[in-house]
Design a protein that fits this description.
It is found in: Cell inner membrane. The protein is an alpha+beta fold. The chain has a single domain, classed as 3-Layer(aba) Sandwich (SMI1/KNR4-like), CATH 3.40.1580. Helix content is about 35%, strand content about 25%. The protein has six helices and twelve strands. The chain is globular and about 50 Å long.
Length: about 190
């Protein structure tokens, strides 16, 4: 069974991320680019822009990625949509827009970054446990200072929360509903 068929979030996320690429090409005339770093390669890299920058686009995660190590370290089960979300694509953060403003969907850039992401998830959950708050898993940052978007680990609902505080605004009933309500966003040329 391929990853695509076993992950209900794969198609919506992959398509949304590629809408962002198409919008970049429409607005700027090219794919987004990132500063070259020979020590930080990624399957997202797709050609040289110039001596200092490479073009990038989201890339499907071909290898099977697991959060079993995270679940074992924390002694909890992560909500399935958290795992589905973070195991769809490699990508730079992908900008998006909702009626509440602009945000960036967070993904791993490469294998090493996926491991760093897992450590960040562990740190976030440990902080929530220490504060005796319900467990949430962040997946996006917003244009509002200190406001992140996260998945309630019990219900799978998407919530806005201030870092270290209780979630304060329900954004969507599920990750799939959330992804489906996003609009592609590209900052206007300067």
């Amino acid at each position: 069974m391929s990853m695509k068929s076993s992950n209900p979030l794969f198609q919506p996320i992959f398509e949304f991320a590629n809408q962002f690429i198409a919008k970049c090409e429409q607005v700027y005339g090219h794919k987004p680019y990132i500063e070259k770093d020979d020590q930080w390669l990624s399957p997202c890299l797709c050609g040289e822009r110039d001596d200092e920058n490479d073009y990038w686009q989201p890339a499907e995660m071909k290898n099977v990625h697991s959060f079993a190590n995270v679940e074992e370290a924390l002694g909890i089960k992560l909500h399935p949509t958290v795992i589905e979300y973070f195991t769809t694509i490699y990508s730079e953060p992908v900008p998006a827009k909702t009626e509440d403003g602009v945000l960036e969907l967070l993904f791993a850039w490469n294998e090493e970054d996926f491991e760093r992401l897992q450590r960040n998830v562990i740190g976030h959950v440990l902080m929530k446990q220490k504060l005796k708050q319900p467990i949430t898993i962040f997946f996006a940052v917003t244009d509002q200072e200190d406001i992140i978007l996260s998945v309630d680990n019990e219900t799978g609902e998407v919530w806005a929360e201030k870092v270290g505080k209780l979630p304060h605004k329900k954004v969507a009933d599920s990750m799939l509903a959330f992804v489906n309500m996003l609009e592609s966003y590209v900052a206007p040329p300067q």
